[in-house]
TrEMBL record:
Residues 35-57 are annotated as: Disordered. Residues 361-496 form the Glycoside hydrolase family 2 catalytic domain. This is Glycoside hydrolase family 2 protein. Residues 234-319 form the Glycoside hydrolase family 2 immunoglobulin-like beta-sandwich domain. The keyword Hydrolase applies. Residues 1-18 form the signal peptide.
Length: 660
């Protein structure tokens, strides 16, 4: 029989499809058998997580309509080492179920592992047939700690390093035409094992006192979305108090493609402003008299951006952060006015999810409690949160000081025969370069959120090279070059060499904020810079077992809390005394901002406004509200020229006299 060309073509097509079917048609990943582990402590939200966690669209400033969450039950298995990445366990069920996106160490993950340094994850997914044909399929990860190697249908599709950053992989070319796709993720997270020196914040493999359980693997949402071949990969957008909007749309094609921006009136479909430009280069336009963003009035504007056939939604707030000398004192300004910043040290740890809050509602609860008593700021302490956290701060109206996650304070020299070995100096070249790279990632990932007012580079010397050349000077310039719209606090606490916009003192329990007295670990107040008390308070109060992180090492270390108050009443009494002392410093000296340790208890640290499980609020809310309001009132009065209590260092006092 002679085959016509048409028949040959269709046989070939069938053969191709058949072979791709045998390669790509897979059974679904076995998702049965998941249950959360019984952890050392739960929260009121633990039972609400279910198996469809974090269903919200995860990236509100670059949002697409065709998307699908891949969060849920996947499979997991411990791996023995880095070499396993070369022999992925394709098409076999991994050992046990895991709930993505909860850290492997968390009870909610269903694994609750320890030393989970090398891990395999497995899931299967289909691409909705309703998605625009001809579009690309993008696979997004909110964050994987610390390195991720991703495989789709037996092919390696991407690698990412850095535990706090989102990444996107175009997987279109690796998908099955019509069927189930298998995905494997190999995660490597050394945390502080060996001599690894990487950004980890408070995570440690051997938790005690102020260092806590680590988070490994996938810990933020995973999702698919559909986008045209030439699509928006990054949006840089800032808006200031004069209505000036600066936009830079980055595209996958790198070509200059026409861009249309539409800004809507708040909670309305009415158009406030439109503008046109091209991708790949920044352009500016001005919006007429926008309502400004501030903690008292956190007005936001929704935005639509069209670039070629790609459409995304986003939002912004109009506000300007700056500094100026007001009545003899260098002050941080919001929209041209000095606003005293009072915040908590906010670590973002959860007993049930570790780095991953159990639900969005739980995450927002912390912010709402703080807002209710008048906090207008929080210092996001050496952790980077999911994008929805920043959106919540934007919406609720809380200014953020954002810390770069620190590297280990220092590495112990394993070769030392000294009983009390010296620390190996930090700042080795390779780890410094990687730290610098991740610092850039942080600024680029977070720079569009109006709530962030200040960047912090180093915390208390951790991972900070302390010999001259002092890297914080160069890093400050780097941050400023990426984001000129915010203040920078290069060194919060301890090893200050004069860089940046702030002079920052840490002192427990009582404050020394812009004062002419200071302690050994600090430096004298520097009137050229803004005075901030980057940490103080930290007074503790032990709780009954039902609110305690029931891990023996943590309970053992409770007595290392800076101060233990015997009852909640005494804790509130002590808080009032310390806030009164701060108030006095606001009136007499140069104090412009302060950070109280801390939002919640964390593991063996029992010094939160709330307990670790968020079930007990320690604060006497009326008292705290009054004490916090008194700080704002005193700062405003002081800045308006009431010198009746001023006791400044001589040079400042002389300048004040001159201005009278
Ligand atoms: C699915 O996994 C569960 C628990 O991990 C196991 O008990 C069950 O046998 C598995 N089912 C199949 C079909 O492999
Ligand atoms: C995982 O594997 C490592 C190294 O093989 C081992 O030290 C560790 O105990 C394992 N962890 C678990 C939870 O099995
Ligand atoms: C994929 O499946 C859908 C629905 O079952 C069908 O309409 C479509 O033609 C299929 N596409 C291909 C390329 O086989
Ligand atoms: C994990 O292992 C470390 C020892 O390396 C130990 O100190 C810690 O208590 C363990 N944590 C848990 C939850 O088992
Ligand atoms: C766009 O530029 C980036 C960075 O230079 C490069 O990695 C990428 O391959 C380019 N894409 C195209 C489609 O040219
Ligand atoms: C932005 O759009 C979302 C979705 O339509 C809506 O829920 C929200 O209220 C809008 N926000 C503002 C500030 O207009
Ligand atoms: C310890 O000694 C070994 C062998 O001399 C050397 O390779 C290693 O770098 C030393 N470690 C440190 C932290 O100095
Ligand atoms: C704190 O309370 C727990 C039990 O609630 C107890 O085991 C522990 O010894 C207490 N620690 C201190 C320092 O009071
Ligand atoms: C805390 O208690 C442990 C024993 O429970 C003890 O060894 C240690 O010295 C105490 N530390 C302080 C600072 O009191
Ligand atoms: C100035 O401050 C002092 C001390 O706080 C206060 O007693 C006085 O009423 C203030 N004066 C004015 C005009 O507000």
């Amino acid at each position: 029989m002679r085959l016509s060309i048409g028949i040959i073509a269709s046989l070939l097509a069938t053969a191709t499809l058949a072979s791709s079917n045998s390669r790509f048609f897979r059974r679904q990943t076995n998702v049965t058998g998941y249950a959360p582990k019984e952890g050392p402590l739960d929260t009121p939200w633990t039972d609400k997580v279910g198996t469809n966690p974090w269903p919200e669209y995860p990236r509100p400033q670059l949002q697409r309509s065709q998307w699908k969450s891949l969060n849920g039950v996947w499979r997991y298995q411990n791996a023995s080492g880095l070499n396993e990445v070369d022999a992925p366990p394709f098409e076999v069920d991994l050992a046990s179920p895991v709930l993505v996106p909860f850290c492997l160490e968390s009870a909610l993950s269903g694994v609750m592992g320890n030393w989970t340094i090398f891990s395999w994850y497995q899931t299967s997914f289909t691409v909705p047939s309703s998605w625009s044909s001809g579009n690309r399929v993008l696979l997004n990860f909110g964050a994987v700690d610390y390195e991720a190697t991703v495989f789709v249908n037996r092919q390696k599709v991407g690698f990412h390093r850095g535990g706090y950053f989102g990444f996107t992989i175009d997987v279109t070319d690796y998908l099955s035409v019509n069927g189930t796709n298998e995905m494997l993720v190999f995660a490597h997270d050394p945390t502080d094992s060996g001599t690894w020196q990487i950004p980890i914040g408070k995570q440690t493999l051997e938790p005690s006192h102020i260092f806590y359980t680590p988070c490994s693997g996938i810990w933020q949402s995973v999702w698919l979305e559909s986008a045209p071949a030439n699509h928006i990969t990054q949006l840089d957008l800032s808006a200031d108090m004069d209505g000036k909007v600066n936009v830079n749309v980055h595209s996958s094609g790198n070509a200059s493609t026409p861009v249309e921006v539409t800004i809507y009136e708040p909670h309305s479909t009415d158009v406030k402003a439109t503008a046109k430009g091209n991708s790949g280069s920044a352009f500016e336009f001005t919006v007429d008299s926008p309502d400004l963003w501030s903690p008292d009035s956190p007005t936001l504007y929704n935005i639509t951006i069209k670039m070629g056939s790609d459409t995304i939604t986003s939002y912004t707030g109009f506000r300007t952060v700056s500094k100026a000398e007001i009545d003899g004192v260098m002050r941080p300004l919001l929209n041209g006015e000095f606003v005293f910043q009072f915040g908590t040290l906010d670590q973002g740890f959860w007993p049930d999810g570790i780095y991953t809050p159990p639900t969005r509602e739980a995450m927002i609860y912390d912010l709402q409690v703080l807002k209710r008593v008048g906090y207008n700021m929080l210092r996001k302490h050496i952790k980077i949160e999911p994008a929805l956290f920043y959106q919540a701060a934007d919406e609720i109206g809380i200014m953020l000081i954002q810390d770069m996650p620190s590297m280990r304070p220092s590495i112990r020299d394993p070769n030392s025969t000294n009983a009390c070995p010296p620390n190996v100096p930090v700042g080795q070249y390779a780890s410094q370069l990687e730290f610098n790279r991740q610092l850039e990632l942080m600024i680029n990932q977070l720079k569009n959120y109006p709530s962030i007012v200040t960047w912090v580079i180093y915390n208390e010397g951790w991972g900070q090279e302390r010999r001259a050349f002092y890297p914080e000077f160069g890093l400050m310039d780097l941050v400023r070059s990426i984001d000129p719209t915010r203040l920078i606090n290069p060194v919060t606490g301890w090893h200050d060499h004069g860089a940046g916009d702030f002079h920052d003192n840490h002192h427990y329990a009582n404050p020394q904020c812009g004062t002419p007295f200071y302690s050994v670990a600090s430096t004298p107040y520097d009137p050229r810079r803004i005075a901030i008390q980057g940490e103080f308070g930290g007074v503790g109060q032990n709780v009954t077992e039902d609110h305690l992180w029931k891990v023996p090492a943590a309970v053992r270390d409770i007595n290392q809390t800076y101060e233990i108050d015997e009852t909640v009443e005494i804790w509130n009494y002590r808080s009032h005394i310390l806030l009164t002392e701060l108030l006095d410093q606001v009136k007499r000296f140069a104090c412009s901002a302060a950070v109280w340790t801390q939002t919640t208890d964390v593991e063996g640290e029992v010094n939160g406004m709330l307990t670790y499980d968020r079930r007990v609020i320690r604060m006497d809310e009326e008292q705290w509200k009054n004490d916090i309001q008194a700080l704002y009132d005193a700062a405003a009065e002081r800045a308006s020229g009431n010198h009746s209590m001023v006791m400044m260092p001589r040079d400042v006092a002389e300048r004040l006299d001159g201005s009278q």
